[in-house]
Amino acid sequence: MLDISPDTAPPQPVRLADYRPPAFFIDTVDLAFELGAADTRVKSRLGIRRNPAAAEHGAALHLDGEALELVSLALDGEPLGANRYQLQPEGRLTLADVPDAFTLDVETRIAPQSNTALSGLYTSGGNFCTQCEPEGFRRITYFIDRPDVMARYTTTITADKQRYPVLLANGNPVARGDNDARRHWAKWVDPHPKPSYLFALVAGDLLAVEDRFTTRSGKEVALAIWVRRGDEDKCGHAMASLKKAMRWDEEVFGLEYDLDVFNIVAVSDFNMGAMENKGLNIFNTRYVLAKPETATDTDYQNIESVIAHEYFHNWTGNRVTCRDWFQLSLKEGLTVFRDQEFAADQGSRAVKRIGDVRTLRAMQFPEDDGPLAHPVRPDSYIRIDNFYTPTVYNKGAELVRMIHTLLGREGFRRGMDLYIRRHDNQAVTIEDFVAAMQDANGVDLGQFKRWYEQAGTPEITVEDRWDKTTKSYELSIAQRVPPTPGQAAKLPMPIPLAIGLLGPDGAELPTRLEEEAEHREGTRVVALTEASQCFRFVDLPAPPVPSLLRGFSAPVKLQEIPLERLKFLAINDPEPFARWEAGQQVATRALLDAIRARRSGAAPHPGRCRPRPGLCRRGSGTAQRDISRRPARGRRCRRDPRRPRGRAGRGRLRIGDGVRLDLCDARRCRSISDR
């Protein structure tokens, strides 16, 4: 039986509408860590000033704290007695009477060795490690632990020389030395202001795989991947991926790395997948270590993608960060989009897009359809940890991609340039990002914000009509956003639909809307902004077949496409994603038809494989494996004597007047035909 005290107050939600600017800013943070075998002492010197834009000009100073033991407190060098501050039951430290600008010295004692929350500073596998996103820094020292308080950090670490020979923190190393024969120290300075969630510290017995990178301005950057002994030979792909990501960010977005060193630490017991701490990324080993003998192609792709993702956060997340945790997708959605584009440029863009859409449909669409549906930017939360979701990450990336689709590659780059220029070293909102995009391109994206505010996956239906007399073609498109918890009624979403028109021979037709003066070649984007709209194309030589949602230009569900049209697109559509999607739907419908026929006891469709002794036994048209007689390799399938059995002829999807799916090898012979 669960015993809950009636005196325990339920947790209160944090609401976006209640956001207020911080009453104080912290400009500088000077940290000194004495890492010990039983506990750790942390001394922090905070340079604090009142925020002139705060609502309350005489407000008390509130510092967040959790699982801390306060040792001492001094204001402008004067020690404070217990009557000068108040420790709240939840851990918050309050100073009621403080000047407008001052220095606060705080000494705390923490126990990393018993920190099972793995938030803040903890030890695992013999190493000290940190994880401060989203609210872990308050477990290290008292602080205004929110992302819109950005400070410049200096960190000094002192530890046992033999047990912890490597001492790492954010920024650039500026000094190191020995205290005595047993202990040593290292000092790091980060010149760029950052929120507390990006603080990082690592101390342990690690080895470095080193390299160098020269930026486009000619600056040399020292690169290092720190791993446990014995893992040095597994870092080559990760290092190559890092250098490719650094070069790509310069070439595609003009963003150059801004420190003298870039460190990656890979430990198997890191509790997150990876973390983008400024200048000191911390990874789980699965996203760093790889050898051809043990790693799959997917492992190599994941390493390349995650290494790039965390590096790209240097600008989209670190230099420009989020004002509050409701803006989480501002950094994560944008950076997921950037790592997707990077991966597409390294290999097949079509294959990458197909993979991303499959992930979205498998993970995010069910979230939108279920009881946990929430907008990309939620209105409230109990714990922000609960909103590191596929909606915030994957759907958030699709929203950025839609802006990219609407503005084009050059327009999106103009928007990114303005966004970085306006907000470098600031904590900003999704509105700031959208405003930069629209201001840089002279467009109105006001309606687009609905994507961030409304949950659910829009459903798209299409009707079309060909007028032989006027040689015009009307495409009527309607959208419906289904109700989700807390949002019964929805406004229409602005949906960019990438489309093309194919002629009866499968050739791409040039298109012209009736209000346009000239034809356009290839894929074009039409904007669906109302509940239903009609787009009229003119000067078409023959009735076209529409190719819709090319490249999956919006995270929507396209419904009720006729089967014969899908078959045509699966054969003829020149756009890779649309052709793949059509083939998938044709195959899915064929399989579902076969299942329905099996359940109803109907006879097999004509053209199916007939039972063969020793190979197939059919019951109501369903193949059952029988390996009691295994034919010799190289025998040919009776269904298609041109195809040898065995590995070379294992799978086939042939789409013509009907669709046939064949799987034939030495032990299987199955086909499904669609009438």
How is the secondary structure organized here?
Blueprint lengths: L13 E2 L8 E12 L4 E11 L10 E3 L5 E7 L2 E2 L6 E2 L5 E3 L5 E10 L9 E5 L2 E5 L18 E11 L5 E4 L2 E7 L4 E13 L5 E4 L2 E8 L5 E8 L8 H18 L7 E7 L6 E2 L4 E5 L12 H16 L7 E3 L5 H19 L2 H21 L10 E2 L8 H34 L2 E3 L1 H12 L8 H4 L5 E9 L4 E9 L14 E8 L5 E2 L14 E5 L3 E6 L7 E3 L9 E2 L4 H10 L3 H25 L15 E4 L2 E4 L25 E5 L3 E7 L2 E7 L1
Parallel strand pairs: 2-12, 18-19, 19-21, 22-24, 25-32
Antiparallel strand pairs: 1-23, 2-3, 3-9, 4-8, 5-6, 5-9, 7-8, 10-11, 12-15, 13-16, 14-15, 17-18, 20-21, 25-26, 26-30, 27-28, 27-29, 27-31, 33-34, 35-36, 36-37
Helix pairs in contact: 1-2, 2-3, 3-4, 3-5, 4-5, 5-6, 8-9
Keywords:
elongated, 675 residues, alpha+beta, single chain, five-stranded mixed beta sheet, 24% helix
Write a brief structural summary.
This protein is an alpha+beta fold and 675 residues long.
Distance between the termini: 59 Å
Which range does the strand content fall in?
A: 25-35%
- Taking all Cα atoms into account, the compactness measure Rg is 30 Å
According to DSSP, the number of beta strands is 37
* Envelope shape: elongated
Question: SS-based structural class?
Answer: alpha+beta
The number of distinct helices, counting runs of at least 4 residues, comes to 9
- Ranges with pLDDT <50 over ≥5 residues? 607-675
Q: Average pLDDT value?
A: 90
Q: Largest beta sheet: what is the strand line-up?
A: 6-5-9-3-2-12-15-14
- In percent, how helical is the residue content? 10-25%
Q: What is the makeup of the main sheet?
A: 8 strands, mixed
